[in-house]
Structure formats: C-alpha cells, structure tokens
Fold:
Amino acid sequence: METIGGLISGFDIALTPINLLFAFIGALVGTAIGVLPGLGPAATIALLLPAIYVVQEPVTAIILMAGIFYGSMYGGSTTSILLNLPGEAASVVTCIDGYKMAKKGRAGAALGIAAIGSFVAGTIGILGMTLFAPAIAGFALSFGPPEKFSLAVVGLLMAVTLSGHSITKGLVMMAMGLLLASVGLDPISGKTRFSFGVIELQSGFDFVTLAMGVFGLGEIFIGLESAIKAEVATTKVGSVWPTLKDWAESRMAILRGTLIGFFVGVIPGGGAVISSLVSYAVEKKVAKHPEEFGEGAIEGVAGPEAANNAASSSSFIPLLTLGIPGNASIAMIFAALLIKGITPGPFLIQEHPEVFWGVIASMYLGNVMLLVLNLPLVGLWAQLTRVPFGIMAPVIILFTVIGSYSIQGQAFDIYSLIGFGLFGYLLRKLKFEPGPLVLAFVLGPMVEQSMRQSLLISGGHFSIFVTRPISLALIGLFAVLAVGQAAFLVYKKLSTTN
Amino acid sequence: MDKAGLHRAEKVSAVLLVAFGLFVAFYSHHYLKLGRMITPGAGFLPYCIGLVLALLGAAWYVRTLLARPVPSVPAEGGGALRARLLPGILLVVLYAWLFERAGYIASTVLFMVGWQKLVEREGWVKTAIVSAASAAFMYVLFARLLRVFLPVGTWWD
Structure:
C-alpha cells in the first residue's frame, strides 16, 4: 500500500506542467544529441550536466537528467542501425543485425522494433524498480560505515571486473578516480591535499568539468584524429511499424531481453553492455534459424535493445536505494543529485520522497513520451545522423567551454576542462575505459569517510570489514562473481584452443 | 595508433604510472601525513592509492613485456589526421585564454573561424556562415534562454 501511495504522489509531482515539460525536453534533447555520431549516453549527459544549475527544483532537475539519459540511450540505437556506429558499448550488438536490416531497406522496421522493445522493457524495468526499490532501501537503512565502505568498494570492483575490459587498466582508472576525488580540503582534518598553491584547487575538481572533459572533449579529440566517417545506410526510413511476422518473431525476444536486462542491470558494472551481449547470445541460441543472425535478424535487434533498456531502468535501483551508481551515466545522475543537495541512498525515500517517487513516476511518463516522440520523428533523427563532424565538433567544444565556465564563472574551470579532455584522449589511445574513473570520483568521498569512521569504530582494525555479517556477505558476493568470471574466461580460452 | 606504436606507448605509460604512484605515495607520506590506524590522517588514503598505482603500473609493464610483439604497420593517413588534432587542441587552448580577455563574442567567432579554416580547411563563405550562426545560436541559448553570464572581455573595459 505504501508503494502505491508513494507512486500516486509521484505522479502528482511528475504530472505538473513544469515537470512534464522538463521530462519532454530531456527525452527530446537526449535523443537529438545521442543521435549525433560518436556521442554515447555518458558523453550526452556530461555535455548537458550544466543545465541542472539553471533548473531550481531538485526533482525537476533530476527528471530532466533521467529524460536525457533514456533519450540518449534511444539515440544510440539509431546511430547503430543507420550508421553502424554504436554510440556506446551497449549498442554494439544492435549494429550487427540492425545495420544489415537498414542495408536491406528495412531501417524503419529495425528502428520501430527498437523503439517498441525499449518502451516495453523500460516500462517493465520501472515497474520492477517500483516494487523492489523501497524494500532494498529499507534493508540498507541498517548499513553502518563498514557496510557502506564494503558496498562502495565492491560496487567499484564489480564495475571494473564485469566491464569486459582489461582488469589492470580498470583498477588503474578506479585508483585514479579515488585520487582525483581526494584533491582539495580533507573533510576531517581540514588539510589541503594536492592543490600545490593553486587556490581554485582547494575546493577540489568539479565533477561536471571532469565529466565534460573526459567524455565530451576527449571524444572530440579522438574524433579529430580518427575523423569519424560512417556510411549512412539510408535516410529513407520507411514505415516504422513492424509487420505481423516481425511481431511474431520479436515478442518473445523482447520479453527475454527484458528479464535479462532487469536482473543484470541491478549489478554494478553489469548494466546495459553485458545484458545486451547476453540477450544476443540467448536469442541466437534459441532461434529457429540461427544462421540468419548477422544477416539482419529482427530478434537480434529486439532482444538486445529490450535488454539494454531494461538494464538502464534497473540500474537506477542501486543508485536510489544504496547510493551506488553502477555505470558512468548513472554516476552523472548521482553527481547531479549531490549538486542539488540530495544524497542518494537508503534515506532518500524517507528524506526526499518527492524526489524518489517523482523520478520513478516521471520515468513511466518519459518512456511513453520517448515512444510517441521517436516513432513519428524517426526521419528527423535519421537526418541528424548526417550532421558533419566539422560542424558538430566545434559546437560541442563551445558547449563544454561555456558549460564549464557557467558553473563558477572562472577561467580556471576551462583550463581544467581542457586538461581532462587531453587526459580522456590519452585514455582512449591507450585503450582505457574511463567509466570506473568517473564512478570512483563520485564515490571517493564516501569511500574515504566510511573507511576512516570504520577504523575509528574498530580501534584501527581492518578486520571490521570481514567481521560484520553484511560487509562480509558483500565481499563474499564479489569473490563468488570474480571467481565465476575467471572460471568462465578460462573455460572460454580452453574451448577456443581445443 | 598502430599496434607496435601502442605497445611502445603502453610500456612508456606504465613506467610513468609507476613513477607517478611513487610520487603520490611520497608526497602523501611526507606532506599530508598518514596519522594513526585508529585516526588516519589526510595522507592515508592517497598514500595507499599511490602504492596501488605503482604496483598496477609495474603489473601493466610486465604484461606489456610478455605480450606477443606485433610487426609495425604504419597507420593509414596518420600524419594528415594528426595535422587536424594539433591545431584543434591549440585552438581550444587559445579560445580558453581569450574567453575572459576578449569576451564571449570575439573569442567565439575567432575560434569558429580558426576551426573552419585550420582544422576543416573550408572556404570563406561556409566559414563565415557557420561561425556567425554557431556564435549567435550559443549566445541565444546560454545568455538569453538559460541566463548564463558570459564575459564581455577585460580588454574592452
């Protein structure tokens, strides 16, 4: 009953004209920027983060950011299908069959099933969040500093190990993020760290500047070197309504993708990437004609698209209930909440029920908006994919420079932005995945504070992290997952050599 | 970057990471202080991170050394592409330097003109249209709609 009451009050908030308007703007602008070649959800949210300073009400600001997030996720599917250019890793598998469908003149059907699959999966995902999130938040209320420390560290380690990239490089990124978060005043002793006499550094690095530099500017620098060139399969999209045969082939794939995405999305680091890969593998396995996969099978678009959207919805669960962002995009929404003076975590539902339920209700509405918006506007999105890099790149640079300057009105932030942009460029050149850096940066203060509090409680003994049952269970869970993943990799390697 | 180039760059970066990690650990130990186990000081976490970074750098170096050597294949059009990257970065730095000094309008138009001519090598007509339109669009968006303060330029005071 409490859940239903909360959801009704959430709809009261989300249905106010201003919140509806910002959910719509978020979905529209998120899709429009997400459609631009080379810009994934993380880059899109990073570029638009300064907008939250303009919006006064915290709940409206977060509704806007959530709209941008799922709008950009959909935009990524469009570039995958029309350009064979995934805006982010989760859309890689959509390219395989989506682009082939577009090449065969079935771009409309591919985009249509992606939109409908995303809508169904997103809505079921939000329903799951509505049901489970309050219970998880209630459980997490008993967490003390040792549990918080273990949760944050285990969340970060999962993000590193499950991301599918080099674990060594992921750990380097995690350590770098924690180090960058420690720059500025130490909250306990008041001592200034790593400021080297620079006054502006005493308050530490700004998250928005870091995110825009690493994801926005870094992406542009890489684009300058690699000159993003993609062949548009077609700009004549045709009917976006799938045929009866398409429906018949896709409906179970959407359902399976939704279930996979929802459960994988809850795990930090699991998220959209793993869920879309797992969904594609499952669809290929259960298909009557697996040989059609890679040649334009509609299930190869429907399943992974449903999975990555369900995962996007369920990835909000650890954020809103435990205060743990599972991926870079969610880390930016975490930062947006902090900027607005709201700490995500188990107390959110008690202290700011209007934000908790308002955001959940707005996600139901946003999903409908996205469907209504995307099906008729699909031709426009197809045209946007043709914006030349020569115009897109300098305009994005203007966005990042003005955006970072607008935060505090100081030129130092622009120089920091350029520094982070160059850092982001180097990371991509050396095949580092910047996601764990951003996650560690936002979780850094929590990690340090809870570690120091835990040591104070335990009289300086690190054993507190393994003697408290919940903390031990979290560490055990990570160990099981890590061992499972290692065993899977060994098995995969052995079966390839045989 | 070709694979052999990446291999070399990884080795150099790993060594630099070890040096950086050791510097962080040294700085944290000497200047920030570690404190006691029961009440860790400001330098405790950075010190641990510094050591971890140095260890990870060493592991990365060993892994790179053990990796199979790859024959060098020159990257296609690498020089021409780098010819866009360098002016692009320099233009962004110049834009940042001019932003408060020359003000939003002058610095933005200059940046856009520079980008279209030096990075994209476009003709003057397209350059003029794109530069004026972008600067005007961003001005309307930020200064008028979002009410963001944009500098008028200290040079014109």
